[in-house]
Amino acid sequence: MKKFFISVMLLCLVEFAYAQSEIEKYRCIEVRTDLVDDKIQYSIKRENSVEFILKNCLPESLKIHVGDKKFTYEKSKILVEDGRIEKNDLFAFECYQPFFEEDLYHYRITNQAEYIKYLNSRNYRFHLGKITPLITPDYSLYPTLKQTAEKVNLETPHRTFVILNRSGGASHEFFCYIDESHAKKPLQDKCLYSFDQVLDIHMKNNDAVAIKALAEKYLKRLDYEKAEKAYKKLMELSNNEDYEGLLSFYITTNQYRKAEEILLKKIDESPYDARLYISLANLYLHKSEYDRAKLFITKALKLGFEEGEYKAYGILGEVYIAERNFKGAILSFKKASELFKKECEQQKLLMDFFKKDTEIVDCELQALPYELKTIYSLTELEDFIEAEKMAKEILSKKQDNPYIFGHLSFIYAGTGDFEKAIDASDKAISLLKRKGIGANIVMGEIYPMVVSVDRNTPSEKAGLKRGDRIINIGDRDLRLYRESKDIIQMLVDYISSNDTVKLTIHRDNSTDLKKIELKPEEFLKPEASQALAFKAIILRVKGNYPEFENLTTKAYELNPEDKLAEIAMALLKTDTGSFNEALEFLEKAGKDVHGSLILLIRPLVYAKAGQVNKAKELYREIPEELLKTKNTLYRVLLDEIKRVLHDKQLN
User: Which residues are the signal sequence here (predicted)?
Assistant: First the structure.
């Protein structure tokens, strides 16, 4: 047994020694990508070259030849990932302190002042050299390097060597290939720190900035495991003071229990911080725990605010809607709107005072969500005149806002003017049309990234998926325009101005790039599903069942997560005798949906499905004021429930 352990230990030591002493010899040639008249020109400058050896995870024997200059860098170090993509994380090694063959000559023939001037001039151009890790498909710039190599008839480089000037600009880029007569290209880079090691290094250096940048970097990459690790380290480093990143991460990823634990702990530590109570109340609102949300909002309002008080009233308004206290909701949303506008205007004055160049802020527009909630509450309170007046006042300023027309449709349906309700729905739907490819695209680390794909759109038909990175539009590599253009705007302009869109994408760290073609179409945004579903319900009330079926199906296909579309589907399946499917749609809509329509449609579906006792139970849960409603649409549904229950009991 002892011999076995000794053998294993010796084997491990041999493997470790091999990994540390393994030598990689590289030869590099310069490859240029120049932007000329908005077009990329690719070329090789074989007269410029670099040679180096990687030994014990550091560059050695570095020889650089650029034009008439021959030089090296006297020192080098391994870089530690810190979330700065362009400046640091694209590279594994940094070489510094350039030394030129001509330096000794200049030193001999010039005085010290002139020699220092010469060094400063020369060092500006060749300030640093940086070497990338092994180029594999998961390397951030792999797509551009692969394409560039193909353009100049080279293999994808094994590494690249980049010379940067003192301003950080890249003046020369070399494609480096391992000398396979000396050693084969390794399958993985053994010199990179693991992510846990990276975090430990930054913790020892008390570098909160780097840890936060890493957390945000991996959250953007959708690598939630690494993002969570970094956010936890950030909290640990700050003694739980820097908690907002981890809190936001847990809420974004629907880990509400963990978010709640953070906030309760912070409240114990800082019981007079009103912002904590607002955050916790908002969390409970997401979880439909309305009593707890109301409790913590009340505590926050008692503490008082320096800023952000409007958030408390906004949350309180949502709680009142859930409780069907529409008078309370109206007062809360009006207060939220008033406070928000006041705070927004103060911020604008502050920006003007410091003469900061910022986009023009429309405080009225940003307060619109609170005003829409006020209109909804007025409609539910059956104050149709005031609701319509408020909606039209907003329309006089914002004539192209589809959501105002959606609320007008709701108002007119309540008054019984179904034709005007349909017209308002049609207007909302028309304003929610757009021409495009049907994908939500944001700027990633290097390339635009697809974060979602809408149903029944050119993107879905072409097979575009969440996480795809867009490398090219047409034959233009977007990476190479990063310094001269807004990449997302460049993409938008390309899509809007072409009948056929040609994209090159990189997916799942594949070795290959995929080319796809799409034809932009005019289609509805997912938000239009609500207007479609509401119009469908009105048409059903009017007896137009074929169009009810058509619009309901369209609304659900457009956005299967929309609650109103799910409710309309439940009605449709009930009408066609598919009762089990109808009940599934009701279940999918959720028990925490408190709108009047769901309260009325639930018992109707169960009654038509023959589950009379359940229908009666749900009917008894309808609030008294809703049973006495003057809302015409609701009255029609109530009458239908009574009629169906009566017919079922007779049978």
Answer: 1-19
Are 625 and 546 in a shared domain?
yes
* Nearest residue to 199 (alpha-carbon basis) of 285, 81, 49, 109: 81
Tell me the average confidence (pLDDT) per consecutive run of 10 residues in the chain, 651 residues long: 40 38 87 86 94 92 92 92 87 91 56 61 81 94 95 95 89 92 75 93 95 93 92 91 91 93 93 93 93 95 86 96 95 96 86 62 88 96 97 89 95 97 97 90 91 89 93 90 85 91 92 93 91 96 95 94 93 94 88 77 92 93 94 96 84 60
The per-residue b/e assignment along 346-376, b for 16 or more CB within 10 angstroms, e otherwise, is: eeeeeeeeeeeeeeeeebeeebbebbbbbbb
Angle at 419 between CA 414 and CA 425, to 5 degrees: 75
Dihedral in degrees, nearest 10, Cα atoms 190, 193, 196, 197: 120
Q: Are residues 558 and 641 in the same domain?
A: yes
Spatial separation of the C-alpha atoms in residues 457 and 439, rounded to whole Å:
8
Q: What is the CATH number of the domain that holds 496?
A: 2.30.42.10
Written as one string, the DSSP assignment of 507-568 is -TT-SS-EEEEE--EEEE-TTHHHHHHHHHHHHHHTT-HHHHHHHHHHHHHH-TT-HHHHHH
CATH of the domain at 573: 1.25.40.10
Residue 143, Cβ density class (10 Å: 0-12 exposed, 13-18 middle, ≥19 buried)? buried
Q: What is the 3-state secondary structure (H, E, C) of 409-445?
A: HHHHHHHCCHHHHHHHHHHHHHHCEEEECCEEEEECC
Of 503, 524, 545, the domain-final residue: 524
Nearest CA to 588 out of 562, 621, 620, 614 is that of: 562
Q: How far is residue 202's CA from residue 233's CA, in Å, rounded to a whole number?
A: 9
Residue 490 covered by a domain: yes
Residue 599 inside a domain? The answer is yes
SS3 content of the chain, % helix, strand, coil (to 5): 55, 20, 25
- Residue 411 in tokens: 């108002």
211 lies in a domain?
Answer: no
Same domain, 512 and 577: no
Cβ atoms 282, 291 nearer than 8 A: no
Asked whether residue 479 falls in the same domain as residue 620, the answer is no
Using CA atoms, how far residue 486 sits from 38, 169, 477, in Å, is 14, 18, 13
Q: In terms of domains, do 545 and 637 share one?
A: yes
Q: State which of 524, 554, 583 marks the end of a domain.
A: 524
Helix axes 612-620, 596-608, angle to 10 degrees: 160
Number of domains in the chain: 3
For the whole model, what pTM was predicted?
Answer: 0.80
**Are 594 and 636 part of one and the same domain?**
yes
Structural domain for 635, as ranges: 529-650
Q: How far is CA 463 from CA 290, 452, 493, 508, in A?
A: 41, 12, 22, 14
Cα–Cα distance, 588 to 606 (Å, whole number): 15
Pair 70, 101: CB distance under 8 Å: yes
Strands 93-100 and 433-436: unpaired
What distance in Å separates the CA atoms of residue 611 and residue 622, rounded to the nearest whole number? 17
Q: Is 213:82 a contact under the CB 8 Å cutoff? A: yes
254 lies in a domain? no
SS3 of 554-607: HHHHHCCCCHHHHHHHHHHHHHCCCHHHHHHHHHHHCCCCCCHHHHHHHHHHHH
Task: Enumerate residues 6+ apart whose C-beta is below 8 A from 525.
Answer: 432, 433, 434, 454
